[in-house]
Amino acid sequence: MATSLKSLSEHSSKNILDISNKKFAIVVSEWNEDVTEALYSGAYQTLVQYGAAKENIIRKNVPGSFELSLGGQWMAQQEEIDAVICLGCVIQGETKHFDFICDAVAQGITNVSLKYNKPVIFGVLTPNTQQQALDRAGGKHGNKGDEAAITAIKMLGF
Ligand code: DLZ
Fold first, then answer.
1. From atom 12 of ligand 1, which residue's Cα is the shortest distance away?
2. Which range of residues forms the domain containing residue 146?
């Protein structure tokens, strides 16, 4: 697993949180779907690798990254959900309102996390080109979906 975040075993080799009973929601933006599908695969496989039960991982799609905040809120407000992972990709060179979308989703996800007092993870790529996105979605720079999943698990063990 190529990732620039410390893996969980490096992070705390003695106390890896038992996540077999934790429930995760993964909210996936449909824009740039070749990228976001790869992010989803990384996040899903990493959760399973660290012990999440497949039936405890719920997937929901939203049309674009702008909608991740509301989709994330709909998931976070469900009591049984322990952590939410939001995955998207906004490509600067192809998106005139790049800054509006990125600022809105970053602030929106932060608000949801604080409102519901749960980890709501910002797994949104904001590269200049599609190649840079692919490099970070299972390519030469690893998979940010893996990192988003690891971040969720680390926060649950906080
Ligand atoms: C409209 C738009 C554009 C131009 N680019 C992207 C993008 O690169 N990545 C992304 O996730 N979403 C994009 N969107 C869609 C917006 O996120 C949103 O779905 C629409 O503005 C409708 O609210």
1. 64
2. 24-156
